[in-house]
Amino acid sequence: MVNIGLSSLSKLPSLPKLRKLEVSDNSISGGLDTLAVKCPNLTYLNLSGNQIKELSSIEALQNLKNLKSLDLYSCDVTAADDYRESVFELLPQLVYLDGFDQEDNEVPDSENDEDDEAGPPGDDDDDEEDDEEEGSERDEVGLSYLMKEGIQVSVWVM
């Protein structure tokens, strides 16, 4: 749900199996506590280009125990003193922040595959990679569900 004018995630439906969420380039400034309740198995969260200004706004992400990768690029919070160190301290479960680990090593290309394997025990859904393919059936089902819940979603296909 990239660049669709979201200012809040409060109307996000419960998506307990969701592992990756991209809500970049919106106007989200807080209320991230919703994610721990509705999307408890997130491993990857992209909040880049939103209105997140303070570290306190991301404290709620401590409850996302499986969160391995967080992107806050182009958020005001990235200008804070000791931003990276503070986020890694606040969210010890994180491996990657803005595409880099604590030693400034970039996320390897194969890390995407590993993210797909992370999740609750017994969840052996091997076709998670298909989620990223544009126009896949899983994306359409997800969008249909969101539309049923009354959340306005725009999809751009290039």
Describe the structure.
This protein is α/β, with parallel strands linked by helices. The protein has a domain at 20-125: Ribonuclease Inhibitor (Leucine-rich repeat, LRR (right-handed beta-alpha superhelix), Alpha-Beta Horseshoe). Helix content is 21%, strand content 7%. The protein contains 4 helices and 4 strands. The chain has helices at residues 33-38, 83-90, 111-117, 137-148; strands spanning 20-22, 44-46, 69-71, 96-97. It has a 4-stranded parallel beta sheet, covered by helices on one side. The longest helix is centred in the last third of the chain and has 12 residues, at 137-148. The radius of gyration is 15 Å and the shape is globular. The two termini are 15 Å apart. The relative contact order is 0.15. Mean pLDDT is 79; it is low at 112-141 and 149-158.
The average pLDDT value, as a whole number, equals 79
Please give the largest β-sheet: 4 strands, parallel
For the record, give the distance between the C-alpha atoms at the N and C termini, rounded to a whole number.
15 Å
General shape: globular
Task: State the gist of this model.
The protein is built from four helices and four strands. It has helices at 33-38, 83-90, 111-117, 137-148, and strands at 20-22, 44-46, 69-71, 96-97.
Notable traits:
single chain; 158 residues; 4 helices; 4 strands
Write the layout of secondary structure elements.
Blueprint: E1 20-22, H1 33-38, E2 44-46, E3 69-71, H2 83-90, E4 96-97, H3 111-117, H4 137-148
Parallel strand pairs: 1-2, 2-3, 3-4
